[in-house]
Backbone:
């Protein structure tokens, strides 16, 4: 690509080295903790439970940092929507190396569509060239926010990616799909959601930990962004999965077939 | 544990935990069995620790260290202490004593230690002088402008064959109102120096892969520039710079106890006998209650000492109490863990027996439990006796 072309390209659209990357992150129950349902069945117990950054979001932060370190982007902005202690999770991302943070405070964690609308508003303010999200959060396992955001923005979308690079002004991604791997070239700006195998997130280094506190953390609200985050879903009841009773041993294939046919009635 | 950490301390604990879990823990069983850490693995840990700024995090930023305060260092020692010394030693915190380096000693000893190019050892103990440091017999006598050192040291530990030793030797006697007192001086002695021999010592059953060395000095001639600090000021120097060592042992103990506690809770919740999890029997559950309570008490003592040190108000008894209680707490926690695991607690397939063995050392080094009690009792009695 010649110099002139690259300038035109940047002005229109696509990947610029001055690109900002937006990484939305979610605060969830630590993956090592066994979740417990509240006694009133209104949700899972979050009091006095160790929380952490959603593991897929950690991978997303790592991916953004690597692009910045490779000179493909100049700034990594992390954003979290939810209760006040989300700031702690944002600090963790800043300690990994993100440049600044935005916290959109709300009493409860907003639903995926509300989050996608909030993110759209942030995208309009910040004008990033790329949004990198985790493919899902390990609490609700919704797997929706990235897809909804790309639809709201009408941006290219690459979900479940295990490879990401910037070549000739486009994002090249490998998607982990049911049938195997799918390679896509996305024109920017784009939304991608990351899968486990994309990278191994770094440990926060001591100098970055010390710098984290001094990095800017902007506080916003849904109202300030003019987004309605009123829940559209009502949770009726949350229950722990029923404990499974032990299986029965069958003596031979004939008995198995008989049980499948006459007891389980599945064949 | 709820230790009322600052944002930075929480981030440090989280990052170190992830580092220990992924970079050190997977090698612990094989390291213990082999009785040593391979040089490749050691180098790999050093390089990663350097890149992350964990290496020499205890020394001030002005000399190239991490500049952590004592409370943050306690958090760091707590996380590192979860895994054997043989491995976390490679995330080296060089002795603060090196800050006494002056002139060209800085470039020869202090700086390379901070950069991971050299490792020191700290040599006080002798076969005839353990708790009773002043009974040491290693001697340095002046000849011309040089010092001639004779004697031997044992139990001198380091995760890796040290490049040089900080050796404490008798250089004379002072008359005091309580009678004669030995003058002790610290020397910097390079490995390879003529008259200085260093050999691996006997193997310890506790921290099995963490080597101790025997140091022998046979007319070892040192130039005047090898004195660290001032002649005759060795013990004052040691007191000034290594008083935190006991607090760090306490913090290590808390980390290891937390690991044992977590393993025990998991086991008690899942191991079934008599038709239910053994955690439902009071015989097991009350053990867990004691373990977690004592761990919390030890954590608070350690953090209290560290925070007092940051405020400049720590007294030797604070460090002694933290070390004494945390190391004895760990012993009880480890023993309870073995009991909760039953026969499996003794088997090499599980980390319990290793942690149980490893915890024994902490009541001995950095001053035995009896010596800590001596310090603490002197502290309270002095208030009445004068
Ligand atoms: C693995 C390992 C690593 C070590 N690393 C180092 C190192 O790097 N550098 C170094 O200089 N040293 C090191 N040491 C030595 C350690 O500091 C000593 O082992 C410790 O100070 C105890 O000395 P000792 O073993 O000679 O026991 P002793 O002093 O002989 O004690 C034996 C027993 O007598 C008791 N006792 C002694 N005096 C009194 C008293 N006044 N009142 C009541 N009881 C008393 C002790 O409490 C103990 O129970 C290490 C030791 C070990 C085991
Ligand atoms: C070296 C060695 C040699 C052995 N040799 C033999 C042998 O030759 N033959 C043989 O048959 N066995 C042998 N054993 C097995 C030994 O008898 C068992 O280890 C012992 O009975 C404990 O069982 P466990 O290890 O399964 O622990 P568990 O029974 O699982 O106990 C785990 C913990 O739960 C506690 N617990 C369990 N039930 C209760 C309760 N109701 N109330 C309160 N607390 C409870 C226990 O006290 C213990 O603290 C050997 C074991 C070892 C380690």
Residues:
């Amino acid at each position: 690509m010649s110099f002139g072309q690259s300038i035109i390209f940047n002005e229109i659209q696509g990947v610029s080295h001055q690109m900002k990357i937006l990484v939305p992150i979610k605060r969830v129950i630590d993956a090592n903790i066994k979740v417990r349902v509240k006694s009133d069945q209104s949700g899972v117990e979050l009091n006095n439970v160790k929380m952490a950054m959603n593991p897929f979001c950690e991978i997303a932060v790592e991916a953004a940092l690597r692009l910045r370190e490779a000179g493909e982007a100049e700034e990594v902005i992390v954003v979290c929507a939810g209760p006040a202690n989300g700031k702690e999770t944002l600090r963790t991302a800043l300690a990994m190396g993100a440049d600044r943070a935005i916290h959109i405070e709300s009493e409860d964690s907003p639903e995926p569509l509300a989050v996608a609308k909030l993110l759209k508003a942030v995208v309009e303010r910040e004008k990033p060239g790329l949004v990198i999200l985790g493919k899902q959060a390990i609490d609700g396992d919704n797997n929706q926010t990235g897809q909804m955001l790309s639809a709201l923005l009408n941006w290219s979308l690459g979900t479940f990616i295990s490879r990401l690079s910037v070549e000739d002004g486009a994002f090249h991604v490998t998607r982990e799909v049911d049938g195997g791997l799918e390679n896509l070239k996305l024109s920017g700006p784009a939304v991608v959601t990351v899968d486990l195998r994309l990278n191994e997130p770094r440990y926060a280094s001591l100098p970055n930990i010390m710098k984290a506190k001094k990095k800017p953390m902007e506080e916003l609200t849904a109202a300030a962004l003019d987004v309605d985050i009123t829940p559209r879903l009502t949770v009726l009841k949350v229950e722990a999965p029923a404990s499974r009773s032990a299986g029965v041993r069958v003596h031979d294939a004939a008995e198995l077939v008989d049980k499948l046919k006459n007891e389980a009635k599945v064949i | 544990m709820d230790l009322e950490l600052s944002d930075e301390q929480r981030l440090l604990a989280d990052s170190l935990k992830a580092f220990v879990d992924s970079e050190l823990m997977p090698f612990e069983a094989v390291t213990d069995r082999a009785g040593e850490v391979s040089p490749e693995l050691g180098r790999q840990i050093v390089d990663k620790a350097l890149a992350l700024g964990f290496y020499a995090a205890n020394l001030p930023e002005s000399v190239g260290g991490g500049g952590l305060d004592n409370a943050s260092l306690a958090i760091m020692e707590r996380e590192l202490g979860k895994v054997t010394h043989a491995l976390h030693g490679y995330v080296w915190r060089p002795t603060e004593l090196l800050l006494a380096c002056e002139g060209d000693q800085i470039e020869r000893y202090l700086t390379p230690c901070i950069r991971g190019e050299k490792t020191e050892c700290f040599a006080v103990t002798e076969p005839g002088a353990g708790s009773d440091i002043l009974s040491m017999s290693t001697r340095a006598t002046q000849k011309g402008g040089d010092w001639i050192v004779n004697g031997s040291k044992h139990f001198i530990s380091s995760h890796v064959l040290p490049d040089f030793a900080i050796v404490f030797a008798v250089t004379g006697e002072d008359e005091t109102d309580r009678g004669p007192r030995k003058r002790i001086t610290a020397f910097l002695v390079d490995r390879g120096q003529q008259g200085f021999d260093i050999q691996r010592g006997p193997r310890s059953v506790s921290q099995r892969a963490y080597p101790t060395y025997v140091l022998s000095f046979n007319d070892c001639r040192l130039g005047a520039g090898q004195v660290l600090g001032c002649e005759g000021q060795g013990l004052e120097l040691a007191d000034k710079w290594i008083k935190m060592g006991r607090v760090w042992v306490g913090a290590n103990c808390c980390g290891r106890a937390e690991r044992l506690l977590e393993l025990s809770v998991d086991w008690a919740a899942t191991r079934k006998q008599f038709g239910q999890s053994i955690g439902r029997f009071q015989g097991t559950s009350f053990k867990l209650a004691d373990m977690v309570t004592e761990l919390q008490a030890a954590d608070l003592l350690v953090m209290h000492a560290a925070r007092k040190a940051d405020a400049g108000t720590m007294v030797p008894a604070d460090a002694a109490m933290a070390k004494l209680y945390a190391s004895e707490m760990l012993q009880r926690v480890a023993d309870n863990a073995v009991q909760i695991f039953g026969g499996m607690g003794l088997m090499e397939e599980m980390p319990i027996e290793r942690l149980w063995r490893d915890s024994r050392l902490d009541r001995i080094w950095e001053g035995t439990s009896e010596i800590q009690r001596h310090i603490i009792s002197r502290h309270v009695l002095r208030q009445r006796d004068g």
Q: What stands out?
A: DSSP finds seven helices and eleven strands in chain A.
